[in-house]
Amino acid sequence: MAEFAKIVLKSGKDQSLKRFHPWVFSGAIKKVYGNLNEGDLVAVYSNKDEFLGLGHYQIGSIAVRIVSFTQVTPDYNFWKNKIERAWNLRKKLGFVQNPETNVFRLIHAEGDGMPGLVVDFYNGTAVMQIHSVGMYFIREELVKALREVLGEHLKAVYDKSTKTLPYKADIEPTDKFLFGEKGETEVLEYGLKFKVDWESGQKTGFFIDQRENRLLVEKYAQNRDVLNMFCYTGGFSFYAMKGGANLVHSVDASAKAIDLTNENVELNFPNDPRHKAFAADAFEYLKDIQDKYDLIILDPPAFAKHRNSLHQALQGYKRINTRAFEQIRSGGILFTFSCSQVVAKDKFREAVFSAAAISGRTVRILHQLVQPVDHPVNIYHPESEYLKGLVLYVE
Ligand code: SAH
């Protein structure tokens, strides 16, 4: 192993690393030896001088993101190997050269052993979102490795990290193509077409993580009147239309999202009178939907990004779900989600259960939903399991 600055943890603070949890919180640090700058690799040791791991150092509550639990020197081949393993898994899962679906998550941060790095694959274009300064410093190397591993499958790499990198860091990131140029922006998911705007869209441009849950909506949509609340680019709506819904209303606070939804509907179901999209605030819209719908999808943005907004977030989930329970038609189906990493599964359930209780309706759980296989969960890092959902039958 090459020479790195060294962090020694306080006594007793080594347990989570010994169980391969890849984060070191700043409060666990006893002492730093050597010159340590943000983004550097740093070796982490226990109070008894046992080597625990090597990771990227960052200023903030998560001080180190571990990239290796063994003593290695992370050179080009080290990173290439990690990318290769992520790509091989996607191949085994059937995502590569799939005629129906050409959009998937290629690298899911901790889930793929690369904390701080997310890469989504859009029909030849890889869109990178980097969360740590350490990963940002090696981005060119990562691009080189992506090109070598993916070969002709890769046409371009777009770096979209300005919003995800720590804003206080001493770097000046810009969103741009690091390889290739803007090409095809239409992607396929289970045969449905979507225009993806990775330059100005939210996240990497598309919420890939709801793929399987959207497919489930298709199965329940026959003859139903559907509300797709927080529709963004309309994903759930087309699946509902494909599944034979009577009508589909897509609602989002962003006018831009509504335009994208209408465009995407036209691509898949030109001139279909069943669909209407409205730009409106969810809390307002849900005030008065009476018994208009018998399939409602609630897929809000992460109401809590940090632990300190947890209480407020849970109140938010409770409020919107109460409105849905109170007004959904008898025999209705509610798909309700939380994508906040800091909201644990049981907390989200409690919020939904309280909402059901307030409405007084009889409610059964039909499905418990999670993120799809291309967003694998690192078994030692429960936080990488962030998407949770319930499908509920409301009498
Ligand atoms: N269901 C979507 C992803 C939803 S992302 C999909 O499958 O792709 C969350 C969306 O909620 C964003 O598009 C955002 O514009 C919208 N949003 C945020 N706050 C809102 C509010 N108060 N009312 C309505 N929409 C809101």
Keywords:
395 residues; Archaeosine Trna-guanine Transglycosylase, Chain: A, domain 4; Rossmann fold; 3 domains; seven-stranded mixed β-sheet; six-stranded mixed β-sheet; binds S-adenosyl-L-homocysteine
Number of strands: 20
Q: Overall pLDDT, averaged?
A: 95
CATH architecture of the largest domain: 3-Layer(aba) Sandwich
Tally the helices: 10
Distance between the termini: 62 Å
The topology string of helices and strands comes to: EHEEEEEHEEEHHEEEEHEHEHEHEHEHEE
Name of the level-1 CATH class of the largest domain: Alpha Beta
Small molecules held by this entry: S-adenosyl-L-homocysteine
CATH fold descriptor of the largest domain: Rossmann fold
| Spans where pLDDT lies below 50 across 5 or more residues | none
Shape: globular
Largest sheet: 7 strands, mixed
Q: How many domains, as an integer?
A: 3
Looking at CATH, the homologous superfamily of the largest domain is: Vaccinia Virus protein VP39
The secondary-structure class comes to alpha/beta
Task: List strands and helices in order, with pairings.
Layout: E1 5-9, H1 15-18, E2 23-25, E3 29-33, E4 41-45, E5 51-57, E6 62-68, H2 76-92, E7 103-108, E8 117-122, E9 125-130, H3 133-137, H4 139-150, E10 156-159, E11 176-179, E12 186-189, E13 192-195, H5 211-220, E14 225-229, H6 235-242, E15 247-252, H7 255-268, E16 275-279, H8 282-285, E17 295-298, H9 310-327, E18 332-338, H10 345-359, E19 363-369, E20 388-394
Parallel strand pairs: 1-4, 9-10, 14-15, 14-17, 15-16, 17-18
Antiparallel strand pairs: 1-3, 2-6, 4-5, 5-6, 7-8, 8-9, 10-11, 12-13, 18-20, 19-20
Bound molecules: S-adenosyl-L-homocysteine.
